[in-house]
Amino acid sequence: MLRLDQALGAVEEPVSPRLPAPALIAERRLAEPVSQTHDIERLLELLAQNLREGLERRGTGARQLRFTLFRVDGAVSRLDVAASRPLRDPTAILRLYRERLTGLGDEIDAGFGFEALRLSVMREAPFAATQADLAGDDAEASEALADLADRVAARLGTLVMTCRPVESHLPERAVRLTPFEAADARPAPAPSAPPAGPGAERPTRMLAAPEPVEAVAGVPEGPPLRFRWRRRLHQVRAAEGPERIAGEWWRSGCDTRPRDYYRVEDVEGRRFWLFREGLFGPRGDGAARRRAAAAG
Hints:
Blueprint (H helix, E strand, L loop, with lengths): L1 H7 L15 E11 L2 H22 L1 E12 L4 E12 L2 H15 L9 E13 L10 H20 L4 E5 L9 E5 L26 E12 L6 E6 L2 E14 L13 E8 L4 E7 L11 E7 L1
Antiparallel strand pairs: 1-4, 2-3, 2-4, 5-6, 7-8, 7-12, 8-9, 9-10, 10-11, 11-12
């Protein structure tokens, strides 16, 4: 109720203009302004080396960094990068900012040059040492994957998402998109309720939500012979199934009707994943529906 009153203006809510202070700051003021990219990268690496000593003393690594460039005319440019694992290595930090600068292109205007540069640690995390095996293959693969995700995120200026398994039998709930973390490079433990049965296959591309199709089958509960999806008619050449998945009755508001999934291929070689929702007969709804759950 307090938050509602504050949103409606019935209760005063003071707003502080103060921003959170960085954990560590390294700054360099220049006698002569710089504008060339290689000069900026060299100074950025020096600032990252200065931050490394402070991070080592604190036993932490940088998870989010901010590079601030002060132009001689007073304009300020800020570049933020994030890492999926704590970083201390100046080379790795410089590599991320190279991708960030490449993604920006000509958006940063140096003007008459930058007279001061600042590198700040906006978010830090404990830097825990890991013990790898003698071969070191798993550790190297994990670091390489995390480095790739960080570089892609820095180049595009967005988060890299990864799929995590969820304890649900329904395909649209079996995975959840979460921001990539370095721990995601290691195999995740299997959920206690596997989303697919033994030997069950899932398509590589799933629609955001099931879409309705008009289907014709030889028998009421048989595989489809032809179907119409997005105003286009598909003639089925081969079909496999059904794989029945019951509704999650323990969830409030969830549809408890079972689904029969079929893997079908049309005469042009396109493959689809269709399901029929509901049952035929006295215990069903009398008009089971088929929907396109995936297309590849």
